[in-house]
Amino acid sequence: MMAVAEKSVEQDEVGKPTARRNYTANDIMMFGAIVLFGILGPILFPNYTFQIAVLWLMVLFAQTWDVMGGQMGYNSLGNIFFFGAGMYICTVTQIGLFTDVGAYTSSTDQGNFNFTPDQYYIGVAVGLVFAAIGSALLAVALGWIVFGLRGPYFAIGTLGIALAAGELIGAWEWVGGGGGIPIPVYPGSGDGKSFFYYVLCFASAIATFLFLKWLYSTRFGLAINAIRDDEEKAEAMGVHTLRHKTVAWAISAFFLGIAGGLFGNMTGFIEPLEVAFPTITFGIFMVAMALLGGKGTIWGPVLGAIVFHIVKEATWTYFLGWQWIALGVIIIINIVFFQQGIVGWLQEKYPHWFGIEVEGASK
Amino acid sequence: MTNLIEVRSVSKAFGGVIANKDISIDVPEGQITGLIGPNGSGKTTLFNSIVGYHPIDEGSIKFKGEEISTYRVPQIARLGMLRTFQQTRIYGAMNCIENMLISVPHRNATFSDMFKPYPAEMYDRAEELLEFVGLYQKRKLHSGDLSFGQQKLLEFAMALMNQPEVLLLDEPTAGINPTLINGLIDRLKRANTDFGITMFVIEHNMRVIMNLADSIYCLAHGELLASGAPEEVQNNQSVIDAYLGAH
User: Fold this and answer.
1) Candidates 3.40.630.30, 3.20.20.100, 3.30.360.10, 3.40.50.300; correct CATH number of B1-80+164-247?
2) With pLDDT > 90 as the criterion, what percentage of chain A qualifies?
3) Residues of A193-220 as b/e, b for ≥16 C-beta within 10 angstroms?
4) Hey, which of A300-304, A351-355, B172-176 has the most confident mean pLDDT?
5) Do B162 and A237 touch (CB under 8 A)?
6) Record: contact A17-B118, CB cut-off 8 A
7) Which residues contact residue A261 at a Cβ distance below 8 angstroms, ignoring those fewer than 6 apart?
8) What is the pLDDT of residues A210-244, one digit of tens each?
9) A148 vs A154: CA distance, rounded Å
């Protein structure tokens, strides 16, 4: 395996672009393993289809958080806002395309309205598109306000947005207020629904990965890394910093909006505090997963999410009552003993695997 | 000979501290202009004012005839006026080539340019310039692992990569090994003659600035004390007093 990695570094000499921005043999192996698990997972463990689907959403969470937190150095604690926004936009679209949203949300029998299968699928498709675009636009608008903040102020400012959104939605009766909205019912069996959303979650996580891998290979990748390393220097060199920051957040929001739309449909019922804007669970998990795996790396958030989710689900199942303690221990070990995360640690230990050159390394 | 930078009666105070008072300076095109003065005399403040780091209280700053005193840092950088920092600033977690690539001019960068790859010519240019400053062998190392002097050279190469019309250098030789200083002076001069980059240089090392500059301005206590050819300034009694502390 190492010999293959070495070779790809050699090829890099000819192909110019630096190695860590190309697909190495290791990348392809990892990617293959993940795709294989994605396909075989629900076949081998049919009872866990929902949990594996959530795993892919977790992978998506960590990856999108890392665009800002890892690659650009802006630690947002409020990215969950776009998840909730996407969820509400998707749901309201699914309902609003075919019936009156106010009547649907205010009555106990959903305005006595039943969706035909065609209406359901069209609603989900259009809803997800709107969720993605709507969340991205919200990120652009909010970016104008919060990108004046740096460091801890940015973290707290974004957290405030997510918390405020939960409260505001809770007071907005048209979208069901604190009582929430029952989602249109899937026109088919429970297994059919699990499979349908499994495929969408898996595809979203893979699409996010491929998109980000490409994105980091463009000038954009270098620009956000430059902002992370020294934003003032980047400004002094004429980099359009605000433009890059805004686009980075909009990209995170785009994919998180899709994730929100999917998760709302999977749970079947959405409400603002626990499902749409869960700042202290998903909102913090996405940060913890990216840190665990290694922020600022392409594989770190993916691996971090997988390890974190498996530990979380295992403790939930076998050590109920201890699950929060287990997660707390993971976070503490991560922060105290290896802040660079799993992949960050590997990069330090075996830089040649990643095509990174170090002074005095034998070649 | 036209002036690329024209500073007219610029004043800047921080609270009660007057950092610059009624300063007027010309930086002629194609030349190397020096700026000297004791510590705390307001040199870096003047640099910061010119590049838009903070607003000025009074006066006017023109770049190629365009009033830039209300512009912000990235705008001014994109006009073709670049500065380097006294405390060297590079992108430490990126390798040298990447540091160079992100430094390409952003003057005409459109929205879609963000998502393009770098063409091979830019890699070639990055490698040429790293060769020019003597860092080619280190090109794939993380720039944060380089020594301070090497980082300074890298920062200079990054500035050249940006193809500025005028370069403001804040103490380019500070912290550099004396034997490397001659090489650096040589490269600064070549950047001026070969690449046609106008320079405005803050420097404490008298030997360096006398050797390098075509004309020199001297600040003390935030005010312009003297200006002229290097020999004139060097022999000016008030400049000598300012440096030696006489009143």
Assistant:
1) 3.40.50.300
2) 68
3) bbbbbbebbbebbbebbeebbebbbbbb
4) A300-304
5) yes
6) yes
7) A86, A87, A89, A90, A91, A124, A127, A128, A131, A132
8) 999 999 999 999 999 999 999 999 999 999 999 99
9) 8
**Residue with token string 């019912």:** A185
User: Using the beta-carbon criterion (under 8 Å), do A220 and B115 form an inter-chain contact?
Assistant: yes
DSSP E strand stretches across B116-220: 166-170, 198-202, 215-220
Instruction: Tally Cβ neighbours within 10 Å of residue A15.
Output: 13
Tens digit of each residue's pLDDT (9 = 90 or more) over A64-85: 999 999 999 999 999 999 999 9
What whole-number distance in Å separates Cα of residue A196 and Cα of residue B132? 59
Residue ranges of domains in chain B: 1-80+164-247, 90-163
pLDDT tens, B101-150? 999 998 888 898 899 888 889 999 999 999 999 999 999 999 999 988 89
Helix (H/G/I), strand (E/B), else coil: A169: helix
Structural domain spans, chain A: 51-287
- Residues from chain B that touch A244, judged by Cβ atoms under 8 A, are 114
Count the Cβ atoms, other than its own, within 10 Å of residue B116: 12
Angle between helices A25-44 and A190-217 (to 10 degrees): 170
Which of A18, A219, A236 comes nearest B51 by C-beta?
Answer: A236
Residue B130 at interface with chain A, using a CB cutoff of 8 Å: no
Nearest to A154 by CA among A73, A224, A213, A89: A73
Handedness of CA B139, B143, B145, B146 (dihedral sign): positive
